[in-house]
Amino acid sequence: MNHHFLLIVHLLSAAIWVGGHLLLVFAYLPKALREKNQRIILEYEKKYEPVGMPALALLVITGVMMAYKYGVSIENWFHFETSVEKVVSVKLTLLLITVLFALSAQFRVIPKLKNNADKLSEMSFHIITVTVIGVVMLVLGSFVRFGGI
Predict the structure, then answer these.
(1) Which of 35, 52, 127, 129 is most deeply packed, by most CB within 10 A?
(2) Cα gap 116→147, rounded to integer Å
(3) What is the rounded distance in angstroms from the CA atom of residue 96 to the CA atom of residue 103?
């Protein structure tokens, strides 16, 4: 598949994933915390998830495909030998951390949050962490254009 096409899909998916989380952090989360109303977060999540999760899946697929095009196959992941391998390996590590936070939120925090606004602070930590990770991954990806880190 054409590298430029993969890059465009990857960037559009990143805009949806990271942009959606930034919107959540800067628009919805402060209001939910101020009003102590977890429904604000839960309603946003319900609307965002059908768009955000496919975007994340496309990010993973296109990211792996582009890594292969840069010569970073699965055998080279986590070797940290070349500059691009470093970017790919750090992004994969951050992806794993994101998945762990998502699982924690989905199966541990959100079920409690539905009936208890006191869990907003814990959910806030998850939201902010995943957002920061998304921004860091976006910045790391930009380094590939310059040969990696």
Answers:
(1) 127
(2) 48
(3) 11
Please compute, for residue 98, the number of CA atoms within 13 A of its CA located in the half-sphere on the CB side: 22
The length of the chain, given as a count of residues: 149
- Token digits of residue 79: 């070797």
User: Identity (one letter) of the amino acid at 35?
Assistant: E
pLDDT digits (tens, 9 = 90+) for 36-74: 999 999 999 999 999 999 999 999 999 999 999 999 999
- Which among 103, 91, 89, 86 is positioned nearest to 148, based on CA atoms? 86
**Spatial separation of the C-alpha atoms in residues 97 and 86, rounded to whole Å:** 17
How would you class 129 by CB atoms within 10 Å of its CB: exposed for 0-12, middle for 13-18, buried for 19 or more?
middle
Of the candidates 9, 39, 23, 31, the residue with the CA atom closest to the CA atom of residue 134: 23
